[in-house]
Amino acid sequence: MKSQDIRAKFLEFFESKKHQIVPSAPMVMKNDPTLMFINSGMAPFKEYFLGNGTPKNNRIADTQKCLRVSGKHNDLEEVGYDTYHHTMFEMLGNWSFGDYFKKEAIAWAWELLTEVYKIDKDILYVTVFEGSDEDGLQLDQEAYDLWKEIVPEERILMGNKKDNFWEMGSQGPCGPCSEIHVDIRSDEEKAKIPGAELVNQDHPQVVEIWNLVFMQYNRKADKSLEKLPERHVDTGMGFERLCMVLQDVKSNYDTDVFTPIIREIEAITNTEYGKDEKTNVAIRVIADHVRAVSFSIADGQLPSNNTAGYVIRRILRRAVRYGFTFLNKKEPFIYRLVEVLDKKMGKAFPEIKDQKHLIQNVIKEEEASFLRTLDQGLVLLDGLMENVKGTEVSGQKVFELKDTYGFPEDLTELILKENNLTYNKKEFEKLLEEQKGKGREATAIQTDDWVTILEDEEEEFVGYDTLEVDVKLVKYRKIETKKDGVQYQLVFNLTPFYPEGGGQVGDKGYLESQDGDIVYIIDTKKENNLIVHIAKTLPKKLDTTFKAVVDEKQRMRTAANHTATHLLHQALREVLGTHVEQKGSAVHSKYLRFDFSHFSKLTSEELRDVEDFVNARIEGKLPLIEKRNQPLAEAMEEGAMALFGEKYGDTVRSVRFGQSIELCGGTHVENTADIWHFKIKSEGAVAAGIRRIEAITYDATKEFYFENNRAYYEIKDALNNPKDAVKAVTDLKDENAKLKKQIEDLLKEKAKNLKGDLKNELEEINGVQFLAKQVDLDQNGIKNLAFELGGEIKNLFLFFATATENKVMLTCYISKELAAERGYDAGKVVRELGKLIHGGGGGQPFFATAGGKNPGGIPKVMERVREYVK
Length: 870
Ligand code: ATP
Ligand code: MG
Prior knowledge:
Helix content is 39%, strand content 26%. With 870 residues, it is an alpha+beta fold. It folds into four domains: 3-22 and 32-257, BirA Bifunctional Protein, domain 2 (2-Layer Sandwich); 446-550, Elongation Factor Tu (Ef-tu), domain 3, CATH 2.40.30.130; 555-705, Threonyl-trna Synthetase, Chain A, domain 2 (Threonyl-tRNA Synthetase, Chain A, domain 2), CATH 3.30.980.10; 747-869, Diaminopimelate Epimerase, Chain A, domain 1. Strands 1, 2, 5, 6, 7, 8, 9, 10 and 11 form a nine-stranded mixed beta sheet that branches. Helix 9 (277-298) packs antiparallel against helix 10 (307-326). The mean pLDDT is 93. Adenosine-5'-triphosphate (ATP) binds at residues 40, 68, 75, 85-86, 89, 91, 207-211, 236-238, 240-241. Adenosine-5'-triphosphate is lined by residues 40, 68, 75, 85-86, 89, 91, 207-211, 236-238, 240-241.
């Protein structure tokens, strides 16, 4: 069965069991401080399990893109070495939100596997939670009894808390699970060891394919468990592993999900998969990672230097490294695999098809830049190997290579090994640990349980219509981080506060109780479905009515920037073309930032056109036409812009100003006239094919023009108020250039004279033409002088010092032959003598310089330098 059909059959089956089939959510998480990427099928539904929202349908099924490269689930280091863990994979899942429970979940899983997919029952094993003393839990008898009716007892195995008790995090919903494992070994292998002994033992052909989680508890901050009022089912089946079973192969990489990519890698790198283990690992790594990186980019996460972007960059670099080291690929090639990926998956996941060119460009650029890093690292490593004493390089040096230059330690180790060297791993790991420890401390978090004040209150956002409203506290909790200290998170029944989202910052403001107690809200965030208000203190009285007031000025500025962002988006598509797509946006009160796909720098005319386009719409006084709860299809019909990597519900909010229509949850001005004016401050590149514009609006533009004007008058003043300031500056520059040239000529002349003088001052000591002298030349002049003298006179040993204010420079030049013959080392000379001027330096045996700040040391230096030739 082809992988496409396997996927379709799963969805059809659960549709027939009355499940709503939904598309995969984007892999990159938004609004969840605990999770960067979706790492299991349930992640998009977290809010339902937490009770912060109600699903439209209490039975759902889908295939979900997952990425397991950070946090609780991190399979990155396994990938490539084994045949059944991926970074990015699809998880097929079915859910019951307070609807069916163990009975149906178990029966349907069995029916699908054995009757629809017709998997031989004899290769299947199931596991049941055995209980846990620590939590005071018994065997999951209910599940056991259900399995016993369909599976022979010897195929039902007991599982411990680690394998068979699933928890969302250190707090939150959890419960026992039953897993289904397959044994796809040959009959001879099976005769040697029974499959039951290999379940959960990391055997590559006895693997878990499906996990059925029965959520029935809630884990509290003090670690105790309480029963959930509603019980849920959450199942997850690895799609690639299922394909392996149904296509009767022994590795996920031998399924049609991967073989086309692998064939392409073989063709590009001129290698063969299956011949040699190192090559195999490298090919698997690359085949896997290109998927993870491509899907992340398609879902809006570009490789970068921080958080989620850095994780993606590291995955791609891992692939480049394996290609570089084991497949001998020294130029970009991974981007060429995107074409096959699109052919294979573009149908099921149109985001890959639609953004193919962008994905290719970004990957290519990243590859090229990391290959340059590797080249640079190799040069540094060569230097290290030349200077090593003994056979061990220090851990500190290897750490520096990694930390400062991004040169990976395993590559360092490999190259050292080829040169019969090693490095101090203990020291290296200690440094790495120290660094990680620092990171951990900064984010260390203590989160208390929610304290409920009002039961059964659903929160409502009223901030589109009002900035001030009476609210009641529903619940709150205390959190503590190293960075921010103690903070309180407050949730109300109603709120006018906009939570950070869609690029727009969260509202600030205050709460005032009837008796005048004031608590400041310093930020507002979204946590999945919850709107969380952040305060430094708690109100004195909790069960009372508060006036909640949003900071109007900040909101107004932010709204002006948000509306301007929509107009900018429209302007860019109008001026540059419809290939322009939003790739990131930040709407602050002081400025806006907009990232978009486009391949070249904007010309000044284009920038001008974009500004004019936006300002024309501001002058056009376009009113806001907002539709809340509009059916998605209808909004799209009207021409609304939707964004990649955004999860939309069946109904959406559309925001329209003239011809600009976007699906957007942000806050906007009532009329574009409220923006006053739009001004672009900068335009530049952020990644291959991605440009960034920063701009300002509203009162920030007034400030901007005012400041510019003031600077202009100050410049004019400094120039003694000429009529034409631009001409005055140009004249000044021309004159400056002329003077510079004159000085240069004079210095050259001086050096020439000096050269003549110095020649006469040379002293012969032991067959060496020696001179040590303090001179008054710039560093470049000294260098030229030394090399010119060196070209004319053999066996030269020159030493110069210069002193200006508190800066001293030492320069040592030794004829190359002389240095080689007598073992003189200019580097050593300046390093040692540098100490006398409280400085340091270095260089090569024939030329070296040192800088310092103690002119008082020069006489001593001049005395000591003679000793080197004596
Ligand atoms: P394993 O022990 O094999 O790592 P798991 O216990 O981490 O699996 P779950 O978290 O229960 O797996 O995920 C549900 C299913 O998703 C698994 O049964 C498996 O089929 C699949 N799966 C899990 N991790 C991966 C991965 N890294 N690559 C591919 N499939 C995976
Ligand atoms: Mg795992």
